[in-house]
């Protein structure tokens, strides 16, 4: 578990730093909209990092068999369905009302969540 935890947290930290760095560059170039999207991406990474740390912390010090270890990851993977559920609803509403800005925001959040899930699965394998 520790190796997966370390790799995934390291990946998340790297992504958060990257998005924040790009955000600052965009701010310096007076590109507020682009900076806001990078901040959204960083925030999504931070949400999943916080949840992952909490999920793994609950198991610290407990004797884990391979099956229990996999259950932890199965439960965490479910978060990639439950958390974005509201974003999908918001996206549908934005499309229905022609709110392009909200649509792009929700699509960005969903894309980042998908990327984080794919990376997590990659680390597990």
Concise overview:
This protein has 125 residues and is mainly alpha-helical. It has helices at 2-28, 32-57, 66-97, 100-124.
Features:
125 residues; flat; Ferritin; mainly alpha
What CATH architecture would you give? Up-down Bundle
What is the β-strand count?
Answer: 0
Major pleated sheet: none
Name the overall outline. flat
* Overall residue-averaged pLDDT value: 90
| Beta-strand percentage range | under 5%
Give the CATH class.
Mainly Alpha
Give the N-to-C terminal Cα separation. Answer: 12 Å
Order of helices and strands: HHHH
* CATH fold topology: Ferritin
Number of domains: 1
Radius of gyration over C-alpha positions, nearest whole angstrom? 16 Å
Structural notes for this entry:
This protein has 125 residues and is mostly helical. The chain has a single domain, classed as Ferritin (Up-down Bundle). The protein has helices at residues 2-28, 32-57, 66-97, 100-124. The longest helix is centred in the middle third of the chain and has 32 residues, at 66-97. The mean pLDDT is 90.
């Amino acid at each position: 578990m520790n190796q997966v935890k370390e790799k995934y947290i390291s990946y998340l930290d790297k992504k958060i730093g990257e998005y924040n760095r790009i955000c600052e560059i965009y701010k310096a170039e007076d590109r507020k909209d682009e900076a806001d999207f990078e901040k959204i991406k960083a925030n999504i990474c931070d949400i999943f990092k916080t949840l992952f740390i909490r999920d793994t912390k609950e198991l610290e010090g407990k004797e884990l068999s391979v099956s229990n270890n996999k259950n932890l990851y199965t439960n965490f993977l479910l978060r990639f369905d439950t958390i974005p559920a509201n974003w999908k609803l918001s996206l549908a509403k934005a499309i229905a009302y022609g709110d392009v800005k909200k649509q792009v925001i929700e699509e960005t959040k969903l894309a980042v969540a998908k990327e984080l899930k794919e990376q997590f699965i990659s680390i597990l394998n």
